[in-house]
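Appendix B. Chain record.
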Amino acid sequence: MPLADDIVSWIRTTVHDAGATGVVIGLSGGIDSSLVAALAARALPGNVLGAMLPCESAPQDAEDARLVATAFRVETLEIDLTAVYRALVAALPEAPRLVRSNIKPRLRMTALYYLAASRHYLVCGASNRSELAIGYFTKFGDGGVDMMPIGGLLKGEVVALAKQLGVPQRIIDRPPTAGLWPGQTDEGEMGLRYADLDAALVALASNQMSGVSPQVRARVCGLMGNSAHKRALPPVFIPTH
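Structure tokens predicted for this chain:
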């Protein structure tokens, strides 16, 4: 599996070059974090921590995360952030559901960096190319990481590699979700099927958009444009005199 071997080597080199000794991964039970755990376990056996950080989460999330951790012999730690989240929301002014829900990945980011610093690890993200391209991640939440091993893979490539590495079929078959609220799904929130998104990104990269429907093209290009700030460092004003 040349692709898996290349990513494993990249993880090992990235951690070594940072002077770190391992990685911590937010293990959600989804396919992306499961694949990252499988790759990291190959790269850094015995030096991978799978942090399960439920926050008003479905019980299945923890069950699936444990299944993955067992399959790839990854150490786990569970910290329930529900009470912290509810206390923070109660202290803040009222806001729409999405605004409130985005606190969850930001709390997880804080916990992951705490755990990483305590072990001299790096925080290993699980965003893929499809999601990064259109900004389907929370800025300074799940986007706040030290490294992104699958950030160059489309969602379809993530699924294919997960199958090759033996990620449990139950995980592969789960509808992708960020777990922001009950019943939330990635495709529902994006307004796009992953298959259409992947096809549009491939077409865009080769400047061959003629085979992409106008609706999908408009949606993808709109999301890419609106989320450009998420993929860049904060702008800095430079005095000219």
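Further analysis of this model is presented in Appendix C.
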